[in-house]
Design a protein that fits this description.
Layout: E1 7-13, E2 25-29, E3 49-56, E4 74-79, E5 86-89, H1 92-102, E6 113-126
Antiparallel strand pairs: 1-2, 1-3, 3-6, 4-6, 5-6
Length: 129
């Protein structure tokens, strides 16, 4: 990623549910990309839909974010549907669960309400040798 803001990145397989943020989560990261940017590394499967969810460390922060996707084979990325933003209002129980999740330095919502930016993408791998 490339941005001037502190970002988190999450990759979900098959579908993303803003009310159950641990469901289908396959990989997440906060600062591995340096300069407070996330870096995700995951071996994707061809024909599976993935959701890339990005958010910021501090609430109500907006800005530009560039996402770079690379790998050993040619990848066709098709934007299927990307409603932005998704407003996720978490219940107290899910906030507690997210705080426990945050104990590993990761969280999606840091307050009662946060904005998640979701990109739904389908990876089709071709010419894999």
């Amino acid at each position: 990623t490339d941005s001037s803001i502190d970002t988190y990145g999450y990759l979900y397989q098959k579908h993303f549910n803003a009310q159950s943020t641990l469901e289908n989560l396959v990989v997440y990261n906060d600062d591995a990309g340096g300069k407070l940017l996330f870096l995700l590394s995951y071996n994707i499967q061809s024909g599976i839909t993935y959701y890339l969810v990005t958010t910021t460390y501090f609430p109500l922060i907006t800005g530009l974010l560039t996402v770079v996707i690379s790998g050993p084979a040619e990848v066709n990325i098709t934007l299927i549907n990307a409603p932005l933003p998704i407003n996720s209002t978490a219940t107290p129980a899910s906030i507690r669960r997210l705080r426990r999740f945050r104990s590993n330095n990761q969280a999606i919502c840091l307050s009662n309400s946060c904005y998640l930016f979701v990109l739904k993408i389908l990876f089709l791998l071709e010419n894999i040798a």
